[in-house]
Every structure is written in structure tokens, then in C-alpha cells.
């Protein structure tokens, strides 16, 4: 079976700093894979390489078996239509209302008629538990949790095949984080999409994933079913999930 996303030997460095050091990773259709790892481990750069925001120095990135590593223009746009994205900071447009934010990709990216896009936006907002009156507000009038819900509605507005979640619970209190995690898990399951998430929040990782992989210094050091994360037998994983200072993971500090 052809993988939905596959990375083969993907490398990226900035100056002398190696960020991705030969990433090999596969995400199957309908799977929810969460990549865990500390800050600076390469998680975000990996996502940006898949999206085409940053070109890898070497290696191959495949989507549905198609090499997308060096696509540009219309060919890149064709692939991007398969993707939805929930950004870490929400990334909502302050100058637009909530429903306009949700419908932005439909109108600007796909040329959809405004009335139809607005109907879809209201429906998507309802699926994440936001009432119709919220649609007319500005993002500044929303709490952090509500902004995350709007971001999730926008990520699913065009019914993408693949959704990326970038640190989805950052900045949220534990209760709201759990609400967002539940929404993500339900959305992925009900829509039958493929999900690739990056986070250092283990509570989130456990709830939204079917499989996990850990990245450290630009390499995948472990991957397996979420059910095996506590018995991985991997010293890097064990240190990370228990938040221990002692272990093979050495935090970089400046004197």
C-alpha cells in the first residue's frame, strides 16, 4: 500500500547547523502520527519541508507516492490542496471576521463564491462547538481556546486529505488543552483524514495519535504504536516522556 506521506533521507542545515540529518518517516493513509521532541530538534523544519516552505538540501518527500520535493507553481498548488494546517499560534487574520478567516482558503485559494464559502464556514464552526454568533466576531474578541477552535475549523474547511497540527495545545491551560485534543481526535477520526502532528506535550501526543515517532538532533530515534510508548525500551523516549534532566538528551545551555 502506498504511504500517504513518506520522507526518505531528508536533510537540511542552516549554515553549519544540521537540523534534519537523514529523516526517514512514513505516514499511512488514515493514520494519526505525532512526532515528539524538544525545542530545536527539527520538528517544525520537517513540516515546513513537506509543505514546500523550506527546500530540503537532499532526500525525497513523497505524497501519495508522488515525488513533491522540487515541485513549484501550479504543480505545488495542486499538492497543497490536499493539505490543511492548524498553526501553533492560530495565525488568524485580525482584519477579518471569524467566518472570513475560516473561509479564506475557499475564497482566495479556490475561488469559491462567497455565499457558499460562508455556509461552509458556519458549518465547520459548529463542528468545533462554536455558535453562529461567534462567526461575526473578530479574532481579538476570542479567548485562546476559541481561537484554536477557529483554526481547526479553517484547517478542515476544504475537507483536506492530510492535516498538519503544529503544537496544537501551546498556550492553553490543561482543561482547554484537553478540549482541543478531544476535538482534534474526533475530527481526524470522523473525517477519515491522515494527520501529522508535532508537539512536546505528551498529554496531547497520547490523545491524538495512533502512532508516535521521536526526533532528536535531526534523526528519528524511535517510532511505534502509541500503546508502546511507555515500554519503548528507548533511553531517549524514556527520558523525554518522564521529563528527566538526566539521560542521553542533553539540553543546550548558554553560559
Secondary-structure map:
Elements: E1 5-14, E2 17-27, E3 32-36, H1 43-51, E4 58-63, E5 66-67, H2 73-80, E6 83-86, H3 98-109, H4 114-127, H5 144-156, E7 162-166, H6 174-191, E8 194-199, H7 202-208, E9 211-216, E10 219-225, H8 235-242
Parallel strand pairs: 3-8, 3-9, 6-7, 7-8
Antiparallel strand pairs: 1-2, 1-4, 4-5, 9-10
Helix pairs in contact: 3-4, 3-5, 4-5, 5-6, 6-7
Can you give a write-up of this model?
It is a single chain. Strand 9 (211-216) and strand 10 form a beta hairpin. The strands form 2 sheets. The protein has a 6-stranded mixed β-sheet with strand order 6-7-8-3-9-10, sandwiched between helices. It has a 4-stranded antiparallel β-sheet with strand order 2-1-4-5, covered by helices on one side. The protein is α/β, with parallel strands linked by helices. It is 35% helix and 24% strand. It has helices at residues 43-51, 73-80, 98-109, 114-127, 144-156, 174-191, 202-208, 235-242, and strands at 5-14, 17-27, 32-36, 58-63, 66-67, 83-86, 162-166, 194-199, 211-216, 219-225. It has a domain at 1-82 and 206-255: Rossmann fold. The chain has 8 helices and 10 strands. It is globular, with a radius of gyration of 18 Å. The model has no long low-confidence stretch (mean pLDDT 91). It starts with a strand and ends in a 13-residue tail after the last helix.
Amino acid at each position: 500500500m502506498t504511504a500517504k506521506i513518506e520522507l526518505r533521507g531528508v536533510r537540511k542545515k542552516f549554515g553549519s547547523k544540521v537540523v534534519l540529518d537523514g529523516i526517514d518517516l512514513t505516514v499511512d493513509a488514515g493514520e494519526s502520527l505525532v512526532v515528539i521532541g524538544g525545542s530545536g530538534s527539527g520538528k517544525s523544519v520537517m513540516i515546513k519541508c513537506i509543505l514546500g516552505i523550506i527546500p530540503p538540501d537532499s532526500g525525497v518527500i513523497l505524497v501519495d507516492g508522488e515525488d513533491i520535493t522540487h515541485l513549484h507553481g501550479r504543480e505545488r498548488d495542486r499538492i497543497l490542496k490536499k493539505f490543511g494546517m492548524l498553526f501553533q499560534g492560530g495565525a488568524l487574520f485580525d482584519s477579518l471576521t471569524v467566518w472570513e478567516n475560516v473561509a479564506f482558503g475557499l475564497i482566495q485559494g479556490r475561488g469559491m463564491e462567497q455565499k457558499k464559502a460562508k455556509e461552509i464556514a458556519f458549518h465547520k464552526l459548529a463542528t468545533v462547538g462554536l455558535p453562529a454568533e461567534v462567526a461575526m466576531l473578530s479574532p481579538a474578541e476570542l479567548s485562546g481556546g476559541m481561537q484554536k477552535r477557529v483554526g481547526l475549523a479553517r484547517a478542515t474547511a476544504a475537507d483536506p486529505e492530510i492535516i498538519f497540527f503544529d503544537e496544537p495545545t501551546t498556550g492553553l491551560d490543561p482543561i482547554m488543552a484537553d478540549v482541543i485534543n478531544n476535538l482534534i481526535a474526533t475530527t481526524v477520526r470522523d473525517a477519515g483524514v491522515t494527520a501529522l502532528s508535532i508537539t512536546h506535550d505528551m498529554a496531547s501526543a497520547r490523545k491524538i495519535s495512533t502512532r508516535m515517532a521521536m526526533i532528536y538532533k535531526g534523526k528519528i530515534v524511535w517510532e511505534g504504536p502509541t500503546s508502546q510508548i511507555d515500554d519503548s525500551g528507548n533511553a531517549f523516549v524514556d527520558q523525554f516522556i518522564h521529563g528527566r534532566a538526566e539521560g542521553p538528551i542533553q539540553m543546550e545551555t548558554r553560559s
